[in-house]
Amino acid sequence: MRKFNQLVGIVTPLDRANIDTDMIIPKQFLKSIKRTGFGKNLFDELRYLDEGQADQDCEGRPLNKDFELNQARYAGSSILISRKNFGCGSSREHAPWALEDYGFRCVIAPSFADIFFNNCFKNGLLPIVLSEEIVEQLFQGVFANEGYQLEVDLASQSIKAPNGESYTFEVDEFRKHCLLNGLDEIGVTLEDIDSIKEYEVKRRQQAPWLFDAIPTLAS
Predict the structure, then answer these.
(1) Is the model's pTM score more than 0.70?
(2) Which of 3, 53, 202, 206 has its CA at 20 to 30 Å from residue 137's CA atom?
(3) How far apart are CA 194 and CA 79, in angstroms?
(4) Hey, what CATH topology would domain 6-183 get?
């Protein structure tokens, strides 16, 4: 998992509430568990004028020119802002995979669906909860200024806007540690690899019959 520390990025506004995971990545694209290749179908039903299919080449598909991801002013964006209850619907982990694969590293909204919120941290994506008033200020800043960027600093839990305004956000200390160090659940476990190996050696001595056909991390 990629580390997240500081991010300076262009902001894309998605001025909708209750964006569900089927809108983020429609069900027909859930046939792979590789975590990559989903970015081209992010917000597929909003982004294209035809119905997309799995393994389809998106080059040449008719674009919805009114949709934000198709507008030149938001090209290369790495920060997405939206309205309340972002990521509601099913628990599909493909939703944060698609956002991250497209290039987004941070999503800002007044609230998130719980499962989506948790899945973001497991995949190197930082979800930030800010008040509706502050999110509205950010929307107005984006609408008024092409190339609008935010500076996100996870270590200090702060966001800096181009006008000098600064906002703080809350984040669980364990999740913060994982993002700063690029640790998913397997990575967290491997932080204790020396203790795991030591335990296996000790356990093998205590109950060797349990290990007759099982390779150990210590071997």
Answers:
(1) yes
(2) 3
(3) 38
(4) Aconitase; domain 4 (3.20.19)
